[in-house]
Design a protein that fits this description.
By secondary structure, the chain is an all-alpha fold. The protein has 6 helices and no strands. The protein has a domain of 84 residues. The longest helix has 19 residues. It is elongated, with a radius of gyration of 28 Å.
Length: 139
Amino acid sequence: MGDVVAMPKKRGRPRRFSTPEDFKEKYLKYVETIYDEEFVEVISYTGFAKFCGCAVQTVYNMLIEYPELKEWAAEPTADTLVVGAIKGKYKSTPAIFALKNRCGWADKVESTNVSSDKRVASKEEAEEKIKQLLERKRG
Protein backbone atom coordinates (compact mmCIF):
# COMPACT_ATOMS: atom_id res chain seq x y z
CA MET A 1 0.00 0.00 0.00
CA GLY A 2 1.14 3.52 -0.69
CA ASP A 3 1.92 6.15 1.87
CA VAL A 4 -1.00 8.28 2.95
CA VAL A 5 -0.22 11.99 2.83
CA ALA A 6 -2.25 14.11 5.19
CA MET A 7 -3.43 17.41 3.77
CA PRO A 8 -2.55 20.34 6.00
CA LYS A 9 -5.49 21.68 7.93
CA LYS A 10 -6.55 25.24 7.38
CA ARG A 11 -5.97 27.24 10.50
CA GLY A 12 -7.85 30.19 11.85
CA ARG A 13 -11.23 31.54 10.98
CA PRO A 14 -12.48 31.67 7.43
CA ARG A 15 -12.09 35.06 5.79
CA ARG A 16 -15.03 37.42 6.28
CA PHE A 17 -14.62 38.67 2.70
CA SER A 18 -13.64 35.97 0.25
CA THR A 19 -12.86 38.36 -2.62
CA PRO A 20 -12.90 42.09 -3.37
CA GLU A 21 -16.20 41.51 -5.15
CA ASP A 22 -17.61 39.97 -1.97
CA PHE A 23 -16.50 43.09 -0.05
CA LYS A 24 -18.21 45.32 -2.64
CA GLU A 25 -21.43 43.31 -2.54
CA LYS A 26 -21.59 43.50 1.27
CA TYR A 27 -20.71 47.20 1.28
CA LEU A 28 -23.57 47.95 -1.12
CA LYS A 29 -25.96 45.95 1.10
CA TYR A 30 -24.74 48.03 4.06
CA VAL A 31 -25.42 51.25 2.12
CA GLU A 32 -28.86 49.97 1.13
CA THR A 33 -29.60 49.27 4.80
CA ILE A 34 -28.67 52.86 5.71
CA TYR A 35 -31.12 54.15 3.07
CA ASP A 36 -33.84 51.71 4.18
CA GLU A 37 -33.45 52.79 7.80
CA GLU A 38 -33.79 56.48 6.87
CA PHE A 39 -30.15 57.40 7.59
CA VAL A 40 -30.33 56.64 11.31
CA GLU A 41 -26.70 55.53 11.12
CA VAL A 42 -23.89 57.55 9.55
CA ILE A 43 -21.93 55.51 7.04
CA SER A 44 -18.52 54.40 8.38
CA TYR A 45 -16.07 51.53 8.20
CA THR A 46 -16.86 50.80 11.85
CA GLY A 47 -20.56 50.58 11.02
CA PHE A 48 -19.77 48.38 8.03
CA ALA A 49 -17.72 46.03 10.23
CA LYS A 50 -20.58 45.82 12.72
CA PHE A 51 -23.00 45.15 9.86
CA CYS A 52 -20.77 42.28 8.67
CA GLY A 53 -20.21 40.92 12.17
CA CYS A 54 -16.45 41.40 12.13
CA ALA A 55 -13.81 43.62 13.69
CA VAL A 56 -13.12 46.95 12.03
CA GLN A 57 -9.52 45.80 11.61
CA THR A 58 -10.80 43.12 9.23
CA VAL A 59 -12.25 45.87 7.03
CA TYR A 60 -9.03 47.89 7.23
CA ASN A 61 -6.97 44.80 6.39
CA MET A 62 -9.06 44.28 3.27
CA LEU A 63 -8.58 47.94 2.28
CA ILE A 64 -4.82 47.56 2.75
CA GLU A 65 -4.69 44.30 0.80
CA TYR A 66 -6.85 45.70 -2.03
CA PRO A 67 -6.26 49.50 -2.19
CA GLU A 68 -8.64 49.86 -5.12
CA LEU A 69 -11.52 49.08 -2.74
CA LYS A 70 -11.01 52.35 -0.87
CA GLU A 71 -11.31 54.29 -4.11
CA TRP A 72 -14.32 52.23 -5.16
CA ALA A 73 -16.08 52.74 -1.78
CA ALA A 74 -15.72 56.52 -2.06
CA GLU A 75 -18.63 56.82 -4.53
CA PRO A 76 -21.35 55.01 -2.55
CA THR A 77 -20.05 56.63 0.63
CA ALA A 78 -20.25 60.11 -0.93
CA ASP A 79 -23.73 59.46 -2.32
CA THR A 80 -24.95 58.31 1.09
CA LEU A 81 -23.45 61.32 2.91
CA VAL A 82 -24.86 63.79 0.39
CA VAL A 83 -28.37 62.30 0.38
CA GLY A 84 -28.37 62.08 4.19
CA ALA A 85 -27.34 65.74 4.47
CA ILE A 86 -29.88 66.88 1.88
CA LYS A 87 -32.65 65.02 3.71
CA GLY A 88 -31.58 66.77 6.92
CA LYS A 89 -30.59 63.50 8.61
CA TYR A 90 -26.89 64.46 8.81
CA LYS A 91 -25.48 67.83 9.77
CA SER A 92 -23.86 69.40 6.73
CA THR A 93 -20.52 70.45 8.28
CA PRO A 94 -19.51 66.96 9.49
CA ALA A 95 -20.78 65.52 6.19
CA ILE A 96 -18.56 67.94 4.26
CA PHE A 97 -15.52 66.99 6.34
CA ALA A 98 -16.28 63.29 5.80
CA LEU A 99 -16.56 63.89 2.05
CA LYS A 100 -13.19 65.64 2.03
CA ASN A 101 -11.44 63.07 4.23
CA ARG A 102 -13.00 59.82 3.02
CA CYS A 103 -14.10 60.57 -0.52
CA GLY A 104 -11.39 62.84 -1.88
CA TRP A 105 -13.60 65.89 -2.28
CA ALA A 106 -11.93 69.31 -2.26
CA ASP A 107 -13.01 72.92 -2.07
CA LYS A 108 -13.29 74.70 -5.38
CA VAL A 109 -9.98 76.35 -6.14
CA GLU A 110 -10.24 79.70 -7.84
CA SER A 111 -7.27 81.28 -9.52
CA THR A 112 -6.86 85.01 -9.27
CA ASN A 113 -4.70 87.46 -11.12
CA VAL A 114 -2.07 88.78 -8.72
CA SER A 115 -1.03 91.65 -10.97
CA SER A 116 -2.11 95.07 -9.78
CA ASP A 117 -1.73 96.54 -13.28
CA LYS A 118 -5.16 96.12 -14.83
CA ARG A 119 -4.51 97.84 -18.16
CA VAL A 120 -3.76 95.95 -21.37
CA ALA A 121 -0.30 96.56 -22.85
CA SER A 122 0.01 98.02 -26.31
CA LYS A 123 1.59 95.95 -29.05
CA GLU A 124 4.82 97.90 -28.71
CA GLU A 125 4.94 97.46 -24.92
CA ALA A 126 4.28 93.74 -25.25
CA GLU A 127 7.02 93.33 -27.85
CA GLU A 128 9.45 95.27 -25.62
CA LYS A 129 8.60 93.06 -22.60
CA ILE A 130 9.10 89.90 -24.67
CA LYS A 131 12.43 91.24 -25.94
CA GLN A 132 13.55 91.97 -22.36
CA LEU A 133 12.54 88.51 -21.17
CA LEU A 134 14.38 86.82 -24.04
CA GLU A 135 17.52 88.86 -23.34
CA ARG A 136 17.40 87.86 -19.66
CA LYS A 137 17.04 84.20 -20.66
CA ARG A 138 20.09 84.39 -22.94
CA GLY A 139 22.24 86.46 -20.60
